[in-house]
Design brief:
Layout (H helix, E strand, L loop, with lengths): L1 E4 L27 H19 L3 E4 L6 H10 L8 E7 L2 E3 L2 E5 L3 E6 L5 E5 L11 E4 L6 E3 L7 E6 L7 E7 L14 E2 L5 E2 L3 E11 L8 E6 L5 E7 L4 E8 L9 E4 L21 E6 L2 E2 L2 E2 L4 E6 L5 H6 L3 E7 L1 H6 L7 E9 L29 E4 L2 E2 L1 E5 L3 E8 L6 E5 L5 E6 L2 E9 L2 E3 L4 E7 L7 E6 L10 E8 L25 E11 L4 E5 L11 E4 L3 E8 L5 E5 L4 E6 L11 E2 L1 E4 L4 E7 L5 E7 L2 H5 L3 E7 L3
Parallel strand pairs: 3-6, 5-11, 12-27, 13-16, 14-17, 16-23, 24-28, 27-35, 36-39, 38-46
Antiparallel strand pairs: 1-2, 3-4, 6-9, 7-8, 7-10, 10-11, 14-15, 17-19, 18-22, 20-21, 22-23, 24-25, 25-26, 28-33, 29-32, 29-34, 30-31, 30-33, 34-35, 36-37, 39-44, 40-43, 40-45, 41-42, 41-44, 45-46
The structure holds CU-O-CU linkage and copper (II) ion.
Length: 634
C-alpha cells in the first residue's frame, strides 16, 4: 500500500529507502488475478512518481495540510445533505471534498478502468482504517460505512493509487460529544524547568493554585509546585537528581521512580527498599543511556512508588515530568520551542474549601481491595482545573501524559480535527499515525501534532469522549484560543525514528497473567495468581538476554500494564501485528479483559530487581505487582 502525496511537509525521496517496501493489498483474496497484477503495476507507478521528486507516504498515514485547512472552515456547516456520492473516473475522486450530515450515507461508483479503494487515512482503535472499501472496475453505488462516524474531518485515499485523495466532512457533534463544558478561567501553566546535570528537588507540603477561585490547595509537592518541576535533559547526558524528604513526618518514607527510564535497580524506585525517610535525602543517577546508546527522546515522568501508598502519594501531588530531547528528534524539525507543549492530565476531587478529599481514609493494609477506584471529579491539566492557552494558527506538538491514578481518557479535539501521533512515552514512532481520538490509560503518553492552521478566531477544546459505557463522562479538559499571526512552518516527516531490530527468541520465556483472586474470604488483584510480595522474585533473566514475554488479562476488567526498566517492543496484540501506534517503544499497554500482548526486550546494563504492575494505582497498591530480577550471566 503506497501512496504518493504532493505535500511539501514530508521528507524527500532519499529518506524513503528507510521505509518498508510496498506491501500487498490488504485482502489479496478479493482481487482477481488481473486486479492483483494491476495493483502491482500501480505500486510501480507510484514508485516512479516518487522518483520524479515527490514524497511518499505509506498506509495513508499522512494528511494533506491544504485539504484540512479547507475543511476546517466548513466544519459544523448547517443543513448538510444526508447522503453523498462520489464517482471515480481515471485517477480521481469527484468530488474530492464533500460534507455529509452525521448518520448519513455515502456511495461510490467506479467508472474507471482500474480497481480502486476508498480508504480513510485515520485508523480506528483496532488498527484498521475507519473505512476501507474495495471498488472493482464498474462497481456502481457501493456504500461506504460512514453512518457511525462522529462529526469531524476524515481524509481518505485510494490504497492502489496514492495520488487519489479526498476529504469527507461529517457535519455534527463528535462521537460521545461533550456534556460538560467548564468555563476556562485560568491560563495553562508549565511547571518550572530544571536543565542541570545535578538537580536537587526538595519535597514539601505546600499550598498550590489548582482551582480558579478560593484558597490554594495544600499538596505534597516536588519543589513546591504541582506537578513538580519538569526535568529537561538531552538523552545520553548523565543526570543526578537529589530528592530531599521534607514532607510531614506522618507521610513517612517515599521512593521515586523515573517512569520509562533505564537505571540501576536501587535508583528505580524500589517500593520497599532504598526508601527516602523523613528528613533524609537520596541522589538518583539517571544515565539516560541504554547499552551505551542514548535513550530515545520522550516524555517520561517521575513519581512516588511506595508500596501500598503509591496511589495516596500521587493523589497528594508527588508527580513531575521528565522530558528528554535528542539530536535525531531535533533534526526532524517537529514543532518546537513554544510550539511544543507538554500536558499532564490528572483528576482530583476537592472539598468546598479547595482541600483535596481523602479517598484513602478507610483503607486498611494493602490497597483498598479490588473495588477501590480513585477517580477525581475535576480534571486538571498541568495542575490547573480547565485551563486555556493561546495558540497561533499553525502546527503544535502536544506531549500528553495521563498522570491520573485510575482514570482513562479518550482524547479528541472538539473541531473534529484528527491527532497525528508521532510518538509514545518511550520514543518516536517509526511513522506518524493519524487518529481521530487517542485512548490514554494511567501512565500512558502520546506525542501528537495538532493543526490549528486556518483556524484563527476559533476556540478548540481538548476533550475526553465517551466511546463505551465504562468510559468517563465526556468532558472538555482545556481550551485553545487560536489567534495572531501564523505559526512558523513545521514538518511532520514520514520517517521519524528507527526501532532497533534484533533477533527475538520464538519461545515465550514468561507469561504474566493479570487476574483477580476471588476467594470466599478475600478478594484481591493478582499477577500469576499471587499478590505482590517484595521478598519474592517471580522471574529471573540473565543479563544481556533478549526475552519474549506474554501479558494476558485473565480478569473481568481492563488493566494498564507497565513494565519497568527496558526499551520494550510490542510484537503482537491478540495474536496479530500491533496497531501502528504500538510499533515504537512502549512501556504501558492497555489490556482489555481476555486480551494479550506479546512484548520483547533486551536486558542490558543492570542486574537487580525491577517491577511490573498495573498502573491503575489502586490495583498496584492492592498487590497487582510482581518482581523480575536480572542476574549475572553464568
Ligand atoms: Cu509509573 Cu512502576 O511506575
Ligand atoms: Cu489494573
Amino acid at each position: 500500500m503506497i501512496r504518493v502525496v504532493l505535500e511539501d511537509d514530508f521528507l524527500p525521496l532519499e529518506r524513503f529507502r528507510l521505509a518498508r517496501p510496498p506491501s500487498k493489498p490488504e485482502n489479496p483474496g478479493v482481487l482477481s488475478h488481473r486486479g492483483r497484477r494491476l495493483a502491482a503495476r500501480v505500486s510501480a507507478t507510484a514508485a516512479a512518481l516518487a522518483l520524479a521528486g515527490t514524497a511518499i507516504v505509506l498506509n495513508g498515514q499522512a494528511r494533506t495540510g491544504a485539504a484540512l485547512e479547507a475543511a476546517a472552515d466548513s466544519v459544523a456547516r448547517a443543513d448538510s445533505p444526508t447522503s453523498g456520492s462520489i464517482t471515480i473516473s481515471n485517477l480521481s475522486f469527484t468530488p474530492n471534498n464533500l460534507t455529509i450530515a452525521k448518520g448519513g450515507t455515502l456511495t461510490v461508483t467506479n467508472n474507471s478502468t482500474f480497481v480502486h479503494s476508498i480508504t480513510s487515512d485515520a485508523i480506528a482503535s483496532d488498527g484498521k482504517p475507519l473505512f476501507d472499501v474495495l471498488l472493482p472496475i464498474g462497481a456502481q453505488n457501493v456504500s461506504v460505512p460512514i453512518s457511525t462516524l462522529g462529526g469531524g474531518t476524515y481524509t481518505f485515499h485510494c490504497k492502489f493509487h496514492g495520488q487519489m485523495t479526498g476529504t469527507l466532512i461529517i457535519d455534527g457533534p463528535p462521537d460521545g460529544s461533550i456534556t460538560t463544558t467548564p468555563k476556562f478561567e485560568q491560563p495553562l501553566v508549565q511547571p518550572p524547568r530544571l536543565h542541570g546535570k545535578n538537580i536537587t528537588i526538595v519535597m514539601k507540603k505546600t499550598k498550590v493554585r489548582v482551582l480558579p477561585h478560593g484558597p490554594r490547595t495544600p499538596m505534597l509537592t516536588f519543589g513546591g509546585t504541582f506537578p513538580g518541576p519538569t526535568i529537561v535533559r538531552r538523552t545520553g547526558q548523565d543526570t543526578k537528581v537529589t530528592f530531599v524528604n521534607r514532607l510531614p513526618r506522618k507521610d513517612g518514607a517515599v521512593t521515586i521512580h523515573q517512569h520509562g527510564g533505564h537505571q540501576k535497580s536501587k535508583f528505580d524506585g524500589q517500593p520497599a527498599s532504598h526508601l527516602i525517610k523523613h528528613g533524609k535525602q537520596m541522589t538518583y543517577d539517571f544515565p539516560l543511556r541504554d547499552d551505551g546508546t542514548p535513550l530515545p527522546a520522550a516524555l517520561r515522568f517521575y513519581h512516588d512508588h511506595r508500596m501500598d501508598r503509591t496511589a495516596r502519594n500521587n493523589w497528594y501531588g508527588l508527580q513531575g515530568l521528565f522530558l528528554t530531547t535528542d539530536p535525531n528528534e531535533t533534526r526532524l524539525d517537529l514543532p518546537h520551542g513554544k510550539y511544543d507543549i507538554p500536558l499532564a492530565i490528572t483528576d482530583r476531587s476537592f472539598h468546598k474549601d479547595n482541600t483535596l478529599t481523602n479517598p484513602f481514609k478507610k483503607m486498611a493494609g494493602m490497597g483498598g481491595g479490588p473495588g477501590m477506584e480513585t477517580v477525581g471529579q475535576q480534571v486538571l491539566v498541568n495542575g490547573r482545573y480547565a485551563p486555556y492557552t493561546k495558540v497561533q494558527p499553525g502546527r503544535y506538538r502536544l506531549q500528553i501524559l495521563n498522570s491520573s491514578l485510575f482514570t482513562s481518557y479518550d482524547l479528541a479535539l472538539s473541531n473534529g480535527m484528527p491527532l497525528t501521533q508521532v510518538g509514545t512515552g518511550s520514543g518516536l514512532l517509526p511513522h506518524p499515525v493519524v487518529r481521530p481520538d487517542i485512548v490514554l490509560g494511567p501512565a500512558q503518553r502520546a506525542d501528537v501534532i495538532v493543526d490549528f492552521r486556518g483556524q484563527a478566531g476559533s476556540r478548540v477544546l481538548l476533550s475526553t469522549l465517551t466511546r463505551t459505557a465504562t468510559d468517563v463522562t465526556a468532558k472538555a479538559l482545556m481550551q485553545f484560543r487560536v489567534k495572531g499571526s501564523p505559526a512558523p512552518k513545521a514538518r511532520v516527516p514520514f520517517n521519524l525514528a528507527r526501532i532497533e531490530h534484533y533477533r527475538v527468541p520464538k519461545k515465550v520465556a514468561m507469561t504474566w497473567n493479570f487476574g483477580l483472586h476471588d476467594g470466599t474470604s478475600e478478594q484481591y488483584w493478582t499477577i500469576n495468581g499471587k499478590r505482590f510480595n517484595p521478598q519474592r522474585v517471580d522471574h529471573k533473566i540473565p543479563l544481556g538476554k533478549v526475552e519474549r514475554w506474554k501479558l494476558v488479562n485473565t480478569s473481568p476488567v481492563t488493566h494498564f500494564v507497565h513494565l519497568h526498566e527496558e526499551l520494550w517492543r510490542t510484537l503482537q496484540r491478540d495474536g496479530h501485528k500491533p496497531p501502528p501506534w504500538e510499533q515504537g517503544y512502549e512501556d504501558t499497554w492497555r489490556l482489555d479483559p481476555g486480551e494479550s500482548v506479546v512484548v520483547a526486550a533486551r536486558f542490558t546494563d543492570y542486574t537487580g530487581k525491577f517491577m511490573l504492575h498495573c498502573h491503575m494505582l489502586d490495583h498496584e497498591d492492592d498487590g497487582m505487582m510482581a518482581t523480575f530480577e536480572v542476574v549475572k550471566k553464568r
